[in-house]
């Protein structure tokens, strides 16, 4: 038998198994049997619970948004409170508040310490200090508006809704328009248009930077250039651990303009600022390590291919390129890489989630001598691929 034939044989074996499995799982008689059988019951209950968590996910998200917007998380972060205290903070009528507290308790945002004395639940406590997650909860309102009719969103094509208007660089990029650094329609016409997304990225950056810094040792380098570095939040986190490292920031001119004062207030006036577009301009030389943090997934393949080539050209021999972002096909975090980013980037109008293997292939095509993945503690937040020129 030829290799092609045995491959086909394996596929049909897999297809036969999947069909048989699905027929069994779809059968109400089997479902009843699994629930009653002492050996299958745990697995059956687990799958039933996870299915209902997906079905009710929207309600959970809305309860979370309401708990944050009503000020419950902020108030309880300061200490225990009675229902009456929380009514005063939230402005909600008692019955409505009790209903919201019940929902927030069910998703572990709050809990009762004793009769009518509320404290944060385990999830609520972790959330209360996570500025990045809080900023995302607020930001998601526009994404979820775009998702109100998901089929319409998919039929309408990429970048047709509110999210695309938020990411001012994305819609034109997704339509393959030849945007330039001084094209106001794409750049958004000044700091006003890029400030909201830059602030959102800065708020959520520390959790990403922590993963990268724990996984990668910058001590071997002299100069780091963060491409698409926004207001410099990643560089600030790196500088906190490696104060001697020289730094460069490359981003769109309007973003770099906004970074200047923010870097100065963080004592980082020495960061060299470069305004430009990596779609049109070469990357500055002089760094022996370049980082692309949450950049590549925003762009279509042609742009990423060209960007990796530019990074290769800007690095000296032995120089390194780091790609850090949540990726597709991440075991245990498929919901983040594939479901969330898949639909998010569609709504945004540009890019796609890629696997680590996709990046290794793109890096080899761009001329890098070696590339490998370096494990991070929380791959859901970011994975890390390191290439050497
Ligand atoms: C998703 S944000 C990530 C920001 C930052 N790296 C982080 O992780 O917080 C993408 C960044 O890429 C920048 N960007 C987008 N297109 C660009 C281009 N053509 N040239 C330079 N920067 C660009 C944006 O201005 C923005 O700061």
UniProtKB/TrEMBL annotation:
All residue ranges annotated as the O-methyltransferase C-terminal domain in the record: 195-369
Name of the protein this chain belongs to: O-methyltransferase C-terminal domain-containing protein
UniProt-listed PROSITE patterns: SAM_OMT_II
Classification via SUPFAM superfamilies: S-adenosyl-L-methionine-dependent methyltransferases, Winged helix' DNA-binding domain
InterPro entries linked to this entry: COMT-like, COMT_C, SAM-dependent_MTases_sf, WH-like_DNA-bd_sf, WH_DNA-bd_sf
Active site: 297
PANTHER family attached to this UniProt entry: O-METHYLTRANSFERASE CICE (PTHR43712:SF2), PUTATIVE (AFU_ORTHOLOGUE AFUA_4G14580)-RELATED (PTHR43712)
MF (Gene Ontology): O-methyltransferase activity; protein dimerization activity
Domain of life: Bacteria
Alphabetical keyword list: Methyltransferase, S-adenosyl-L-methionine, Transferase
Signal sequence residues: none
Pfam family for this entry, one: Methyltransf_2
One GO BP annotation of this record: methylation
Species per Swiss-Prot/TrEMBL record: Sandarakinorhabdus cyanobacteriorum
